[in-house]
Amino acid sequence: MAAELVALGAAGVAAGVLARGGRRLALPTIPAFMAAGILLGPSASGVIGHPEDLELVATVGLVVLLFHLGVEFPLDEVLASGRRVLAAALAYIALNVGGGLALGFGLGWGTAEALVIAGAVGISSSAIVTKLLIELRRLTNAETPAILGIIVVEDIFLAFYLALLAPFLGDAGSPAEVAADFAISFGFLAGLLLLARFGARAAQMLLDSEEEELVSIAAIGLAVLVAGLAERLGVSDAIGALMIGLVVSRTAVRERVERLVLPVRDAFAAVFFVVFGASIELGAAEAVWPAVLAAVVLSILTNTLGGLVTARVHGLNQRSAANAALVLLSRGEFSLILATLAVGAGLDERVPPFIALYVLVLALVGPVLAARSGRLALVLPNRLVGGGFRYVGRETMVRGCAHVDVVPAGPRSDVCDDCLALGDTWVHLRACLACGYVGCCDDSANRHATGHHEATGHPAIASIEPGESWRYCYVDRVLAPGAGLRADPADAPPS
Prior knowledge:
By secondary structure, the protein is mostly helical. The chain contains 20 helices and 5 strands. It has 2 domains: 383 residues, Na+/H+ antiporter like fold (Up-down Bundle); 75 residues, Herpes Virus-1 (2-Layer Sandwich). Strand 1 and strand 2 form a beta hairpin. The N and C termini lie far apart (65 Å).
């Protein structure tokens, strides 16, 4: 027990120290947490000599993370797009799994190996995706329902894919047994969906208490219970936790649960990512570097195509396409499971280190790229997406707010005076609707428009670039296309 406590404490301290250093470099916390796990794990210092000893704590971290996501994000917004969400998810899976399968056969390691590689390369990490949506403050973005739909459909797909792999991995049962397992797992998933839609009253009765301590205990207990039942019946624990979170999101205690579970989520999620990093075995990795680099490049390309399809289907712009592509880029827990199965099945010895190194690279690089998705958005042509308005370099929303619906103050200048004072240049200019201050955009080096908002609290800006007509609210994160400052016909959004 002492060894486990030391390992758990070291995980928390290392995660906190490295994440703080990463923040100073404007990096997400996930790569820092994973780096802490690698440094503490068997591949380095060995402080966490047996990551499996912390598996239960790490699993609780994943469960609480997905549960809190469900609580924060209302079910109605997830289901609102219906067929479009399903179409985008299937396209994403087809592109990534298909690309992984082509890579697997191209490596020439064997048919079973190619199928394992396809699954490892093709399926996103729900844990990393969830953490990124929260950390990057994109839960209310227009593309987020599609992203959540993709990770849920991926989980359903996994059941089919593992059944497909069973004969190649020597773990196949009779057709009747396989059919029964499918029926049970999908029946439970359907039950969770019905519960999420109609079971709010029951959850309300369970969680409604004047004592906050009891609310938090009951909420976390409910999340862990449903996650455990889901795992036992063939549905991932993460999806079970997400679904019960969606149930709670429809109750009157939603905001209390969200607030009370937040500190628990952050602490346990950090442990999950540290243990995740420690569990990656990098032995013999040097022999598979070329294949790993090819897989990483392929994943970036197929994810970008998947993001474009998602934006096209949902009528979103380039920023949403780039956000979806790069948030979903990281690979994780399912890929490592496949690596373990490959070892047990006696497949080519290069497969496990290939998967481990591939997961490590994308788990570290993916969050960094996701945080800088605007750079990818800038190179995506308008004609490839269906947004109906010109890309303006900000996260986009599908709802309005009062802050952008005001009579604007006239712009004070046609230049960024603060940039001129520094001897710098800018990319685009934005004007404050409240006072007319003109500052440079977030793609500029100094980000003076955003700095003005942070200093004054003035909520909204408008573009004063020729050919652009839009307003943006920092408070509600709302983009209003077609509502600019100037009455120039050239400012109308493109049709």
